[in-house]
Amino acid sequence: MVRAGLTPERLTRAGAELADEVGFDQVTVSALARRFDVKVASLYSHLKNSHDLKTRIALFALEELADRAAAALAGRAGKDALAAFADAYRDYAREHPGRYAAARLRLNPETAAASAGVRHAQMSRAILRGYDLTEPDQTHAVRMLGSVFHGYVSLEMAGSFSHTAVGTQESWAWILDSLDALLRSRGPAAGRTAGGGSPMPVSDPEFDRQG
Amino acid sequence: MVRAGLTPERLTRAGAELADEVGFDQVTVSALARRFDVKVASLYSHLKNSHDLKTRIALFALEELADRAAAALAGRAGKDALAAFADAYRDYAREHPGRYAAARLRLNPETAAASAGVRHAQMSRAILRGYDLTEPDQTHAVRMLGSVFHGYVSLEMAGSFSHTAVGTQESWAWILDSLDALLRSRGPAAGRTAGGGSPMPVSDPEFDRQG
DNA sequence: GAATACTGGCTAAAGCTATTAGGAAAATGC
DNA sequence: GCATTTTCCTAATAGCTTTAGCCAGTATTC
Question: Which residues in chain B are closer than 8 Å to A196, comparing Cβ atoms?
Answer without folding.
Answer: 163-166
